[in-house]
Amino acid sequence: MALLNFELNILDNYKLLIRDIIKYLTILIVFHYLITSTKIKNPFRNGFLNDSFVTLLIYLVLGILFYYLVIEELIDIV
Fold it and tell me: What DSSP designation does 8 have?
């Protein structure tokens, strides 16, 4: 049961497009919040798979998890 339920009279492809836009916006907003709160300067300066890169990867995964566990449960596009 979603908190917001949108009944749109459009093709299913466009419903998937709207769902994907919400998904990527959510992931990027969470990712940006986590990056700005930790003040990582240049994550790729010190080589491949350094501590900053792993931190960025963890933040990106947290953004994806937030979308699937929270946002997808709150918004339903039918």
Answer: -
